[in-house]
Amino acid sequence: MPKLRVLVVDDEWNMRNLLRIYLTREGFEVKEATNGNEALEIAANHHFDVILLDLMLPDMDGWQICKKIRERDHVAILMLTARSETKDKVYGLGIGADDYLTKPFEPEELLARVYSLIRRSTITQSIKQPEPVIEFPHLRILPEGREVFIHDHTVEFTQKEFDLFISLARSVQRAFSREELVNLIWGTEYEGEIRVVDTHIKNIREKTQKAGLGYNPIQTVWGVGYKFNGASLSNEKE
């Protein structure tokens, strides 16, 4: 069973270290961010089960970060703050935070709230609306059924090929490094060769070409990695 993943956002090393100790003892995989911009970048490129978000940060406050995350993600967010005013809690919950914990706190309470949020998030995910079909010229990707159709014919991908293909297709024109793709598809604990990405991209290209797609859906970005070939797709639509 994969580890549950937590992003800890706090500019104080002592607090991050304390939270990392609590969470790793419970078997969580923990990533850390020291400011808002770093937190937003990490959250955009990785999946998390919970985000522990400090309210007071050097570049932007936790409320701003929460708003930005909520624009594109429904990950559970637990706000951490030394401010105990009710109006602050109400505001934080109103803009999308799922829970609010005042410092200082006992580790048992923190862990109880984290597990509660994960349970609630799991229930919500189980009843959420299906992800819509992703469509490009002559190409349809069905996320819920994990199916790919080219010219209305099914193309068989392995699990990792499909995960890689749809991850790129969901972010047209965003260039991913090999490291980002490995972390996204194989997980941060993967210790194999990073060129495994190249092998899977080659297989995807061969399968789409054989199916008669007529264009290369994955573009190599020299010095960076890969991106979905949105430019060619736009030209095709025109």
UniProtKB/TrEMBL annotation:
Residues 131-230 form the OmpR/PhoB-type domain. Keywords: DNA-binding, Phosphoprotein, Transcription, Transcription regulation, Two-component regulatory system. Residues 5-118 form the Response regulatory domain. The keyword Transcription applies. Residues 131-230 bind DNA. InterPro entries: CheY-like_superfamily, OmpR/PhoB-type_DNA-bd, Sig_transdc_resp-reg_C-effctor, Sig_transdc_resp-reg_receiver, WalR-like, WH-like_DNA-bd_sf. One of its GO terms (cellular component) is cytosol. The modification 4-aspartylphosphate is found at residue 54. The keyword Ribosomal protein does not apply. It holds the Pfam family Trans_reg_C. One of its GO terms (biological process) is regulation of DNA-templated transcription. SUPFAM superfamilies: C-terminal effector domain of the bipartite response regulators (SSF46894), CheY-like (SSF52172). One of its GO terms (molecular function) is phosphorelay response regulator activity. It is found in: Cytoplasm. This is Response regulator transcription factor. The lineage of its organism: Bacteria, Bacillati, Bacillota, Bacilli, Bacillales.
